[in-house]
Prior knowledge:
Number of helices: 23
Strand content: 5-15%
Shape: globular
Number of strands: 12
Number of domains: 1
Distance between the termini: 110 Å
Amino acid sequence: MRQVHRNREPTVLSLSSQGAVRFIMFLLAVYVAITASSFLFMWKLVRQRIRQLPLRKIPGPPPLSFLKGHLPQIFGREDGWEFHTGILEKFGTVVRLCGWGGDPLLYVSDPKAIHNIIVKDQYIYEETSDFIASNLLNFGPGLLGTLGEHHRQQRKLLNPIFSINHMRYMIPIFQTVCSQLRDQLVEKVKNGPKEVEVVHWMTATALELVGQAGLGYSFECVNETSGNEFASTVKNLVPTLFPLKVYRVFLPWIVAYVPRPVRAFAARHVPWKAVRSVVSMVDTLHKMSMKIVSEKRMALLKGDEAVLHQIGEGRDILSVLLKANMSASEEDRLSEEELLGQMNTLLFAAMDTTSSALSRIICKLAEHQDVQDKLRDEIVKALEGSNTLDYDTVHNLPYLDAVCRETLRVNPPVSFVARTTRKDVVLPLGTPIAATDGSKMSEIPIAENTGIIISIIGVNRSIAIWGADAAEWKPERWLSPLPQSVADAHVPGVYSNTMTFLGGGRACIGFKFSQLEMKVVLATLLPVLRFHLTDTKIHWKLSSIVYPSVGTSKKPTMPLEISLVSEKSGL
Length: 571
């Protein structure tokens, strides 16, 4: 027995020694892996900085923060306007800025350069990873949350739905909703001029229009007492999201390396009110989208009779999309998740941008009573005693068109968009710039993963393109031939030689829908209502989508005095 015991001791010691050796080898492997990864990361960082050296020759302002660079100024809700207009005036069409940790950003308003970015080489200059990650988390894999072939397939299915022919079917729906809006406002001011919070009504109307014409669903929010939770959610989403954009750069890593259950738990319990608010809003948006898609699909399965009894009678965008998706080939068909993504994207994009644009137009008309009177006269004359206008008449009112074009040019709802380079590329310029060393640069070598900001207002308000009065709001400029410089600039936007609705493969797919909505709202309200400014100063806050506010409030609001046309102002 003792012999057996003596024979076991070396075995135990041997096993312990082997375990220790394995543990040491494991630690060594981890150390080597970490060291190698660190060297690789540092090498890539140094290599990236070396390849970005040519950008150092491009003039630009010094950053206020080493860590955040110019990001707080770019996304500054209060002082952002001054920063954007200031660098355009001082540095011109290409400006070097800094992002996180001093990473260079190019701020571009050169039309030829933008053409290369969004049209010619659009698959080199793609949406930033944090933009895609943010939209995937907030809305799902819709048009705003996909890239490349995935995005092209979705757009191929959606393009026919936003054609002019399909827009013609929308007119009766638009007129019904806009008449409800008119009646509600008339009721509020029937006893005399009254101060009215206009953003609330423009948001509710935009939501109801995209609901009925886009989804075949009524949110029943164009009334005084609705208190619609969904309308409130969508209206406040952008102002809540915008301050978080500075930190959005970390989202791709969070999505890639943090499991979904952990992300969901952390987002709901993180001690950051803005993040928790966004999560709650996204949940509301997603639940409503699921409800609408489910009801619409059930109606389609029941047959044409059930569809005809729904709002839109099957001609709404969602019904057409569902039918097209059912008949699409396997490779082109959208998944359930993608359908919900399109729904969320449509609700968010169509409502927020259009309500912002409508609010701005009405604010401009309140500032310029002569323009408001002239536009009202044109609309009343076209109506000829009728209450409604058909599609062709609405689109052929020259002054209405001029007011909309000029407002969207000078004050676009979106002021800038971001891109990133997916590989090394050379960016040609239409106008050479003066480098910091005194040389002229007619093209810029750009390294992979370099951030680019396309300045929409930089193009839309360019003196070189639009003349000395480029920053002024003058609807009359559209009633006569535009300067030759406008045509010569070859602005690559899809709308009126401007960048308001972008261009290329990621241009705003619903810009015709938005135009029609704005014109029908104005043509319905102006014949009977007059808008005036009040003593309350309105501030337009810089955000992903620009919005009006008063005082130090961060919430969208725009109080205006409204009166019946037959009465005089005097609140």
